[in-house]
UniProtKB/TrEMBL annotation:
Domain NTP pyrophosphohydrolase MazG-like stretches: 28-84
Highest taxon of source: Bacteria
InterPro entries: MazG-like_dom (IPR004518)
Gene3D superfamilies assigned: MazG-like
Organism: Carnobacterium antarcticum
Protein name: MazG-like family protein
Length: 104
């Protein structure tokens, strides 16, 4: 995985993407997320695999543009969620702090 991420980062440098505007890179992230949604809607597993990979590539580049790396971002997110409690509601995990409470 390390070598693959380094390859994506080098590809990004070769294309000048590492110095591009992050806001434009984020638009690319959302475009690729849309392709994941389309793949799920069509139940197209090949398209889904490609779409997930494209999302990861665009996120690697977004992190790189902001002097971060994928591992740093993932570690930060995991540190936040590792002790999180909650429950599954209609197939979605809802963290405890977001569960509806009686406010009366």
């Amino acid at each position: 995985m390390n070598e693959l991420i380094k390859s994506v980062e080098q590809w990004s440098k070769d294309k000048g993407l590492d110095q591009a505007e992050s806001s434009k890179q984020f638009l690319k992230v959302t475009e690729e997320v849309g392709e994941v949604a389309a793949a799920l809607a069509r139940n197209d597993m090949d398209m889904l695999k490609d779409g997930i990979g494209d999302v990861v590539v665009t996120l690697i580049i977004l992190a790189q543009q902001n002097d971060m790396d994928l591992y740093e971002c993932l570690n930060t997110a995991y540190d936040e969620i590792k002790g999180r409690t909650g429950k599954m509601t209609d197939g979605v995990f809802v963290k405890s702090s977001d569960l509806a409470t009686d406010k009366e």
